[in-house]
Structure formats: C-alpha cells, structure tokens
Amino acid sequence: MLTPFDISCPYCGEPIEILVDASAGDQHYIEDCQVCCRPITLSIQIDEDGEPQVTAASENDV
Ligand SMILES: [Zn+2]
Predict the structure, then answer these.
(1) Distance 20 CA to ligand 1 centre (A)
(2) What confidence tens digit (pLDDT) does each residue in 12-31 have?
C-alpha cells in the first residue's frame, strides 16, 4: 500500500508529495525535487505502528 507523504525540499523549501510503500520496510533513496530538480536524500523508517517516518535531507547533510 502506498501512503502519500508530504515533505519539504531541503533546498528550495517547496512542499513535495512522495508515495511511501510502508510494507517494504525501511528505505533509503534519492528523489529529485520536482521544483528545483536537486537530489533529496529520503530516509524512511517504519515505526511500531506501521506508520512511515520520512526524513528529507540535502545531499550535503549525509
Ligand atoms: Zn527543491
């Protein structure tokens, strides 16, 4: 099941909606910002309730 999740781009601050597959477990991937096209590092962790927790970081923060 894909869960829509709103994040803010760490570069331009624009809100971006991503789709998270909570059944896939913890994930770590890069998605280009739809506004400024810079690569956002996404860390997704599934908490005990099965809810995804999403952290968006710029490439330089990693
Ligand atoms: Zn951006």
Answers:
(1) 19
(2) 999 999 999 989 999 999 99
